[in-house]
Amino acid sequence: MPKTSKVKKKTSKIKSKIKNKPKSKVVNKSKEIVKATIKISKNYIPKENEKYMCEKHKVFFRLKLQDWRKELVRANNEALYNGSMDDNSISADIVDQASSYTDKNVEMKAINRQIKLISEIDKALIRIKDDTYGYCLDTAEPIGLKRLMARPVAKYTIAAQEKHEKDEKVHADD
Predict the structure, then answer these.
(1) DSSP string of 93-145?
(2) Which of 138, 105, 133 is nearest to 120 (CA)?
(3) What's the pTM value of the predicted model, to 2 decimals?
(4) 22 φ, ψ (degrees, to nearest 5)
(5) How far apart (Å, rounded) are the C-alpha atoms in residues 45 and 152?
(6) Torsions phi, psi for 39 (to 5 deg)
(7) Exposed/middle/buried for 105, CB within 10 Å: 0-12, 13-18, 19+?
(8) Which of 51, 55, 54 is nearest to 38 (CA)?
(9) Helix (H) and strand (E) counts for the chain?
């Protein structure tokens, strides 16, 4: 019997060592990729012979979109401020009131279009971060530099855009 007690003592010592041993924490060190900021000149224009959507292209379109967004926000703020200051609806003449109402209505529609455009710009900036900018959301084909230069918020290739517009027209007729 004494032999078994020794075995028990040894196993209990091993168990106590395991219990007392500090648990090692599993540390997941995610590798952070530090990208060097690429500087481009103000005169830089993306070229077809460069790799499509290289870092230079992304920086160019990000800056272009950010500048466009700032300009739209500034214009909207001015329009809202100036529109609220210019109030001819108090006029006694009913024709002047109608004209003022129509002018304000047109101005508000323009502001709403600009707000939607700002939203599209924000989505395009997110796509730049996600590395999906410049590629069609439907087909994943490159949209093309010429199209992006003309319409930086483009989400689809020309063929895919035409298909979407055709589908919208069909559904609008229903």
Answers:
(1) -HHHHHHHHHHHHHHHHHHHHHHHHHHHHHHHHHHHHTT-TTB-TTT--B--H
(2) 133
(3) 0.70
(4) -65, 140
(5) 13
(6) -105, 135
(7) exposed
(8) 55
(9) 5, 0
Residue count of the chain: 174
Note down pLDDT in tens along the chain; length 174 residues: 455 544 444 444 444 444 444 444 444 444 444 455 788 888 899 999 999 999 999 999 999 999 999 999 999 988 888 766 555 556 668 888 888 889 889 989 999 999 999 999 999 999 999 999 999 999 999 999 999 999 999 999 999 999 999 988 887 665
Tell me which residue of 145, 149, 151, 82 sits closest to 110, measured CA to CA.
Answer: 82
Homologous superfamily of the 50-173 domain (CATH)? DksA, coiled-coil domain (1.20.120.910)
